[in-house]
Amino acid sequence: MLRHDRLILSRARRGLSRIAAMAERGCLWIAGVFTAYMLIVVAFNVVARMLFDATGAALNLMIPGAIEQASYALIVIVLAAIAASMRGGMITVDLFTGRLPRRGQRALTRVWYLVMVVFALVLARAFGGETATLLARGDVTQDLGMPLWTVYAVVTAETLALALVCLGHGLGAVAGDPAGPADDGKAGAAAYRDTLA
To answer: Is-above-0.85 flag for pTM?
Structure first.
């Protein structure tokens, strides 16, 4: 039965690895789309503002609510980027961790990933609760009148993706993880890149 349990655990880890990789890819895609959108809105508004000033306010091509759009896009970008940035491991203080044996370093890395899972779940619960409250009240954004719950719903999904990505790394389910099986990092990193492709 022990062999059967190992097989099930191995399949579960592979499944978690695939799901975590998909969540990470999704976060990268969201961050890229919202970054491009924010850059277009800001750049267009800068040019439109110059035309507005040059024509003595006769030509107004500025996008309504551009600052609001850029602000909400930035929130979405930052949270998506956090989940996507977990791939290479978290930032560590080498002065401390470098003195630990390799096994201790992996254990500490796993602990930090699992702490991040808890943190992300706490954030997801808070943002999810706020999403429900805003939806029930019908709150809208100040300039555009866009339903505010939509922003919070996206942020809630991103924090859940962060929890999923960190769980995958924390359990060492993703090949090449700093918390994963001992290897030189090259084979595991290549395998992980293949899951992202």
So the answer is: no
